[in-house]
Automatic annotation (TrEMBL):
<dbReference type="GO" id="GO:0030170">
    <property type="term" value="F:pyridoxal phosphate binding"/>
</dbReference>
<dbReference type="InterPro" id="IPR015424">
    <property type="entry name" value="PyrdxlP-dep_Trfase"/>
</dbReference>
<keyword id="KW-0808">Transferase</keyword>
<dbReference type="Pfam" id="PF00202">
    <property type="entry name" value="Aminotran_3"/>
</dbReference>
<comment type="similarity">
    <text>Belongs to the class-III pyridoxal-phosphate-dependent aminotransferase family.</text>
</comment>
<dbReference type="InterPro" id="IPR005814">
    <property type="entry name" value="Aminotrans_3"/>
</dbReference>
<dbReference type="InterPro" id="IPR015422">
    <property type="entry name" value="PyrdxlP-dep_Trfase_small"/>
</dbReference>
<dbReference type="InterPro" id="IPR015421">
    <property type="entry name" value="PyrdxlP-dep_Trfase_major"/>
</dbReference>
<protein>
    <submittedName>
        <fullName>PLP-dependent transferase</fullName>
    </submittedName>
</protein>
<keyword id="KW-0663">Pyridoxal phosphate</keyword>
<dbReference type="GO" id="GO:0008483">
    <property type="term" value="F:transaminase activity"/>
</dbReference>
Length: 441
């Protein structure tokens, strides 16, 4: 297996034909995106700089966005049901955010100094997460996780990092799989001493870690596997993991980079489970590059430069004034309990409606997830699933819905109940056509 984007060859001839025709129509509809992509390949290997966005034969180029919609360079407008893989929570043009950012812009860029917004933002974050007595900022979720892991190892003086089957913790902390899936060729991973444990299986975790428990310095877990397919952790699994980590003297880290949008204090607050450290990122940056890691005072105090032996942690843009203002503003004005509850209820409704309609229409798809973060799955034979997902993706684009090829669905605050109903109807109709194509030969 490699990471290169190769055509998904469906073994089902009907699906193969549907895929060919969907790609041809995509090519015809998007000449300007195609040209822009060809130009991009002259200076960017593969024409882009974010592998997640790769589409065969080429990705669309977006020109602008407003509310819940984005418009590509060929003039097509899409309702956004991907929300930048969960980070685009506020839509494209939230007026409160835009006003705060404009004001900050007018005050000047890059002071190479602290601003009051840094502590204001930090205070807002630590007030939300019971596990965060203190917090530090970084530039991405990847960086926050790498810093949290390094901190945990230093705190415990141990070497091993436990991750879970199916986890994604960032560009350098990815493709954790056990069994025959292995690590694809071409993946580069930060050289921590990883142990990959089974998700939602505390007995399996204990059996694996028992013999090496004295070496385990960090256990990092997503309260729901995000990129791994929106697989929620069983609450009891997380509780047991909490207890086991304490028992073996490890630092338990919740990666809430995605799940922090499930409630004001993330999934940990919903479940009443307090890890030792928490990482967040994505939408907390108010639209800018962001990551943060925080935890118990005794752990985070290692960064207190007033104390002997403190850890040095630089980062030119750690406290970028624009990010600090945008993040603090979003936290104080937009990430309200009511707004998050509305959106997560809408996501639950969408998932239920999709599943009910897929069932009634016998479409070979289902949706899985929690609240506003969901994933579409195909139930056709394994060798045809990728092609079926791809056909569905192209059909939804043609219907004006922005989704991901791998089936990720994430809502944003601008999505209305009517839009969700429209999306459900479109997805069910497209799923029916995919099923018909699969049966046609
Ligand atoms: C759970 C989780 N952790 C970490 C990351 C990495 O964040 P970033 O892409 O900002 O580095 C992601 C990104 O998708 C994520 O979903």
């Amino acid at each position: 297996m490699t990471l290169s984007r190769q055509s998904n060859a469906a073994s089902n001839p009907g699906l193969a034909a549907a895929l060919q025709s969907a790609r041809a129509s995509y090519l015809e509809r998007n000449p300007k995106s195609h040209a822009a992509y060809s130009k991009a390949t002259e200076s960017l290997p593969g024409g882009g700089t974010r592998t997640t966005l790769v589409v065969d034969p080429f990705p669309l180029m977006i020109e602008s966005g407003k509310g819940s919609e984005i418009t590509d360079v060929d003039g097509h407008t899409y309702k956004d049901f991907l929300s930048d893989y969960t980070s685009g929570l506020y839509g494209k043009s939230n007026p409160v955010l835009l006003e705060a950012i404009s004001k900050a812009l007018a005050q000047g860029l890059q002071f190479g100094a602290h601003t009051p917004h840094e502590a204001r933002f930090a205070a807002g974050l630590v007030a939300r997460f019971p596990s965060m007595d203190l917090v530090r900022f970084a530039n991405s979720g990847t960086e926050a996780n790498m810093l949290a892991l390094t901190t945990a190892l230093k705190h415990t003086g141990r070497s091993k990092v436990v991750v879970f089957d199916g986890a994604y913790h960032g560009s350098l902390l990815c493709h954790f799989h056990t069994g025959d899936k292995g690590m694809p060729e071409g993946v580069v991973r930060a050289p921590f001493d990883f142990v990959i444990a089974p998700y939602n299986d505390i007995d399996g975790v204990k059996a694996l870690l028992g013999p090496i428990k004295a070496d385990v310095g960090a256990i990092i877990v997503e309260p729901m596997l995000g990129a791994g397919g929106c697989v929620p952790a069983e609450p009891q699994f997380l509780r047991d993991l909490r207890d086991y980590s304490t028992e073996i003297g490890s630092v338990l880290i919740f990666d809430e980079v995605q799940t922090s949008r499930l409630s004001p204090g993330g999934r940990q607050a919903l479940l009443g489970i307090t890890p030792d450290m928490t990482t967040v990122g994505k939408f907390f940056g108010g639209g800018f590059a962001f990551g943060a890691f925080g935890g118990k005072r005794e752990i985070m105090d290692m960064f207190d430069i007033r104390k002997p032996g403190a850890i040095s942690h630089g980062g030119t843009f750690n406290n970028s004034p624009l990010t600090m203002v945008a993040g603090a503003t979003a936290l104080e004005h937009l990430l309200t309990p009511e707004a998050l509850e509305r959106l997560n209820n809408l996501g639950d409704h969408m998932r239920d409606a999709l599943n009910a309609a897929f069932k009634t229409t016998n479409a070979p798809f289902f949706a899985k997830g929690l609240g506003s973060i969901n994933q579409l799955y195909c139930t056709l034979p394994a060798e045809d699933r990728d092609a079926a997902m791809e056909v569905l993706f192209f059909m939804l684009l043609e219907k004006g819905y922005w989704v991901s090829q791998r089936g990720t669905l994430a809502l944003n605050f601008e999505n209305s109940a009517e839009e969700v109903d429209g999306f459900v109807a479109a997805a069910v109709e497209a799923a029916g056509r995919v099923a018909a194509a699969a049966k046609s030969h």
